[in-house]
Specification:
The complex is a heterodimer of chains A (378) and B (187).
Chain A (H helix, E strand, L loop, with lengths): L10 E6 L11 E7 L2 E8 L7 H5 L8 H4 L7 H16 L5 H30 L4 H21 L8 E2 L2 E2 L7 H23 L3 H7 L7 H6 L5 H5 L6 H4 L20 H25 L8 H8 L9 E9 L2 E9 L5 E7 L1 H5 L3 H5 L4 H11 L3 H5 L1
Antiparallel strand pairs in A: 1-2, 2-3, 4-5, 6-7, 7-8
Chain B lengths: L3 H16 L2 H9 L28 E5 L13 H5 L5 E5 L9 E2 L2 E2 L1 E7 L8 H5 L5 E3 L10 H4 L1 E2 L1 H4 E3 H7 L1 H16 L3
Parallel strand pairs in B: 1-8
Antiparallel strand pairs in B: 1-6, 2-5, 3-4, 5-7
Helix pairs in contact in B: 1-2, 7-8
Classes of the chains: A alpha+beta (378), B alpha+beta (187).
The structure holds iron/sulfur cluster (2 copies).
């Protein structure tokens, strides 16, 4: 840093990352410490920039789908869904009933995968190396098997398309999904027995990294982080997109807005997801998985020319509001393609949460933000 | 009481630990404790994981009967639609630049897929109007040299229709149905 000479002599600059196991990828925190207390923290990002938006403007609408898988690589399904919803809005494409149900099932399974993994990683950040993370990954593995069954790939699914999904569910999918979903609460109970009342965890996380309601709202924070601060805002409820209004589910809220709340809100959200999944797996109707218009443009992406105009499609991704903004000039490529990445915007309040805390707290505060660098840098 | 939470957590890990042994699972059941999932890892490469039928890796070209009877007609649709542009096709031409026909269609003289760039997205399969390209599930293709060994040419991409039927029976059934319907149409 250029102004390092201007610092008082008893302050210490520490650069955490970009190669550091606690920074969840190539992310750097430039901290200024007074003893062990953080007086300044500057997030440095861009190490994983891949020019995703510009690339998207130079290819057909459909060709961007496999690239969205690589945004937040824990949640390929919801990324696909966000883009599909934006394209549907832009071109006025209907989704079949069965398609909607499959999408909801995939989106909620993705939420389970994401929240389980982030909780495991949070424990890793706290120094409980391995054990809780591997329990989490064991459960995640079962759901990834489901994704592989339906889409052919565990992580880079490229499954959801405007109008529905690319292929209908294979035989045996619903049975296996029901088995896994029915077993999930037991895993959550076990996870909670391991973690929720654990004194060490409570002492490390309670009243750490408090994010006040007002700041959370004005900074545009969304997702479990916002709800942990006590703001009742869930796009599944607010927008009621897809068939979500048909499922009764609660939006769990935190009270303090500290790291512990962020952890616990995620656990509760998983329990709600299990409820949604149970009902969706029960009610799923027959019929085609993709509408004729959607099937046609999947088959011939180059001929798809949406009318002039713009559209913003947003969904409640596991990490927060994931939005795709598309501007069409009537050609077969978007004129502008922009992504509102939730973990990027949630990261902006990092310094506010860390100031005055110890350096070791910064690691878990970052862990509880739940970032994936693929999405932050795009 | 302080410390109870930690003890409870330790019991969970202890149960999971004991449950990874066969004798341990029996013991837990005797004590009426639900064992965890047990051993979950496999010893790759001695043991290989079963894959779902749709599992996809890199594309291959399908031929019927003999390897020169490719289904591909070198229409270049997949080349244009492939998002990272890793397919390269040259249709067969004679010295004057006229298309050469074999089996009643133009075959590709060159068909390369750079597997170091391919991202296994399956878009080429979705867009091919002739069901000429399909996804393989062979994933052990590690190579020592990126330029030579990972650039798959036509010979390396060829697979018989029987192979396709064998690795993806239900998908092949749909494709075969579509193809036979197409063959009937002009008659
Ligand atoms: S594989 Fe299919 S799409 Fe590609 S050139 Fe051959 S026939 Fe055309
Ligand atoms: S799978 Fe995707 S990246 Fe690979 S050759 Fe086909 S279209 Fe291109």
């Amino acid at each position: 840093m250029a102004d390092s000479t201007a610092l008082a002599s008893d302050l210490l600059e520490v650069s955490l990352g970009p190669q550091h196991p606690s920074t969840h990828g190539v992310f750097r925190m430039q901290t200024v410490l007074d003893g062990e207390t953080i007086v300044k923290l500057k997030p440095v990002m861009g190490y994983l920039h891949r020019n995703h938006e510009q690339l998207g403007e130079q290819m057909t609408y459909i060709a961007s789908f496999p690239f969205t898988d690589r945004l937040d690589y824990f949640c390929a399904m919801t990324n696909n869904l966000g883009l599909a919803i934006a394209i549907e809005k832009l071109a006025g494409i209907d989704v079949t009933e069965r398609g909607e149900y499959i999408r909801v099932i995939m989106a909620e399974l993705t939420r389970l995968v994401n929240h389980t993994a982030v909780t495991g990683f949070l424990l890793n950040d706290m120094g409980a190396f391995g054990t809780p993370l591997l329990y989490a990954f064991r459960e995640r593995e079962k759901i990834l098997d489901l994704f592989e069954m339906a889409s052919g790939s565990r992580m880079m699914c490229n499954y959801i398309r405007p109008g529905g999904v690319r292929e209908d569910l294979p035989e045996g999918f619903l049975e296996q999904a029901r088995r896994i979903v029915d077993d999930y609460p037991r895993f959550l109970d076990e996870f909670e027995a391991l973690l929720t009342d654990n004194e060490i965890i409570r002492q490390r996380t309670e009243r750490v990294g408090i994010l006040p309601k007002e700041l959370a709202v004005s900074a545009g924070v969304t997702g479990p982080m916002l709800r942990a601060s006590g703001v009742d805002y869930d796009i599944r409820k607010v927008d009621g997109y897809s068939v979500y209004p048909r499922f009764p589910f609660k939006v769990p809220l935190g009270t303090v807005g500290d790291v512990y709340d962020r952890y616990y809100v995620r656990i509760l959200e998983m329990r709600e997801s299990v409820k949604i999944l149970r009902q969706a797996l029960k009610d799923i109707p027959g019929g085609p998985a993709i509408s004729p218009k959607g099937a046609a443009l999947t088959k011939a992406p180059r001929t798809f020319r949406p009318p002039k105009g713009d559209a913003y499609g947003r969904i409640e991704a596991p990490k927060g509001e994931l939005g795709f903004y598309l501007v069409s000039d009537g050609s077969n490529q978007p004129w502008r393609y922009h992504i509102r990445a939730p973990s990027f915007i949630n990261l902006t309040v990092l310094e506010d949460m860390c100031l005055g805390r110890k350096i070791a707290d910064a690691i878990i505060i970052l862990g509880a933000v739940d970032i994936v660098m693929g999405e932050v840098d795009r | 009481m302080i410390g109870m939470g930690v003890v409870k957590g330790m019991l969970v890990t202890l149960r999971e630990f004991v449950g990874t042994y066969p004798w341990g699972r029996g013991m837990l059941r005797m004590l009426r404790i639900r064992p965890g999932s047990g051993l979950f890892t496999i010893e790759y490469p001695d043991v290989k994981q079963e894959h779902a039928e749709r599992f996809r890796y890199f594309p291959f070209l399908v031929y019927d009967g003999t390897p020169d009877n490719l289904r591909c007609v070198a229409c270049k649709i997949c080349e244009q639609e492939c998002p990272p542009k890793c397919i390269y096709i040259e249709p067969a031409r004679d010295a004057e630049g006229r298309p050469v026909k074999a089996h009643g269609r133009t075959l590709p003289a060159r068909f390369d897929i750079d597997t170091s760039i391919c991202m296994s997205c399956r878009i080429c399969v979705d867009v091919c109007p002739f069901d000429a390209i399909e996804m393989d599930n062979q994933y052990e293709i590690a190579a020592g040299d990126r330029e030579q060994e990972l650039l798959f040419d036509k010979e390396k991409l060829l697979r018989s229709a029987e192979y396709f039927e064998q690795i993806k029976p239900s998908e092949a059934a749909v494709v075969n149905q579509r193809l036979s319907a197409k063959a009937k149409k002009p008659a």
